[in-house]
Design goal:
alpha/beta, globular
């Protein structure tokens, strides 16, 4: 068997809570990623995704367990792991706003120890790759969110890493820019890089990842291809209602309806989007609409479960 790109075995990370009790951010997590694979790490806020990513980045130390990148231990061989790993974060963190895009990359290239002659070749290629050639002399503070994300990618690839950790790469970017970023990331995987992606966008993980691992409370609760996870909800039905004025009491009653597995409510502007997931071959449409008789219903849709629906079902424990 070929050497794993990422090998996480029985990883635990504890921390001291404000009131003095010890809590586990990561609790016995194991995850193996093959070379050239793109794996998504999914989970709700506080699930342990960021702690796991920071341990891989050598920013945090594990409390127990083993974490290796291309066979190198993240604790005893941290310097080697940093050379092999590229980290691409979102937002303004990690960029110098008053410097130009070129100067940002030049600064980080110096920190990576890349010779100046090599920088003169590599930086223009990376700027062209991420679509910033022509804007390289502009200050980063004038960049849009999407342009900053492109610069983050160029920075993360500066030292030609074999493993890339992506943290919410398209968060806050317009749909066109996000699509272009996803295409760029997929190109990197095709070139042989290994990518670990954390994201809240299920369609992004569905489109891009070879496998996904779902964690909750620091523990892995599911792992597989997007298709295999969706098959776990085979036969279930998702009812989506675009509405307004749904109160907490109504949500509580919906969750108690026979056959209902999960109920989620999200806001899209002035419209509430209610997703009700039911059990095997159970049609709860009439019962749900009866509960919503006193609120405004704009649209009702039924569909087969998506990866997001499978995720919601798994994270909520498949029950109420």
């Amino acid at each position: 068997m070929s050497e794993l790109a990422i090998a996480i075995d029985n990883l635990t990370r504890t921390f001291r809570a404000p009131h003095g009790e010890t809590k586990r951010a990561v609790d016995g997590l194991s995850l193996h990623v093959e070379r050239g694979e793109m794996v998504g790490l999914l989970g709700p806020n506080g699930a342990g995704k960021t702690s796991t990513a920071k341990i891989l980045m050598t920013v945090l130390l594990p409390t127990s367990g083993s974490v290796r990148v291309l066979g190198h231990d993240v604790v005893s061989e941290a310097q080697t792991v940093r050379r092999l790993t590229g980290v691409i974060l979102g937002g303004d963190a990690g960029l110098y706003a008053r410097l130009s895009a070129w100067d940002n990359l030049s600064l980080f290239a110096d920190l990576y120890g890349i010779p100046y002659r090599e920088q003169k070749k590599r930086i223009p290629k990376l700027l062209d790759l991420v679509g910033l050639l022509g804007n390289e002399r502009k200050r980063v503070e004038s960049f849009s969110r999407g342009m900053k994300q492109r610069l983050h990618i160029a920075r993360g690839l500066l030292h030609d890493p074999q493993v890339v950790i992506l943290d919410e790469p398209s968060n806050g970017i317009d749909p066109v820019g996000a699509r272009e970023l996803r295409a760029l990331i997929k190109d990197q995987v095709r070139e042989g890089r290994t990518v670990l992606l954390t994201t809240h966008y299920m369609f992004e993980a569905d489109e891009m990842c070879d496998r996904v691992a779902i964690i909750r409370g620091g523990k892995k609760i599911a792992e597989g291809t997007p298709e295999s996870l969706k098959k776990q909800t085979e036969g279930q039905v998702v009812l989506t209602v675009h509405t307004s004025g749904v109160a907490k009491e109504c949500m509580a009653r919906l969750r108690q309806l026979p056959g209902v597995n999960s109920v989620t409510l999200s806001e899209r502007g002035a419209v509430q989007v209610l997703d009700v997931q039911s059990g095997q071959q159970t049609d709860v449409t009439a019962a749900v609409l009866a509960e919503l008789r006193d609120v405004g219903i704009l649209q009702v849709l039924k569909h087969e479960p998506t990866l997001e629906d499978a995720y919601v079902s798994l994270v909520s424990g498949g029950g109420k």
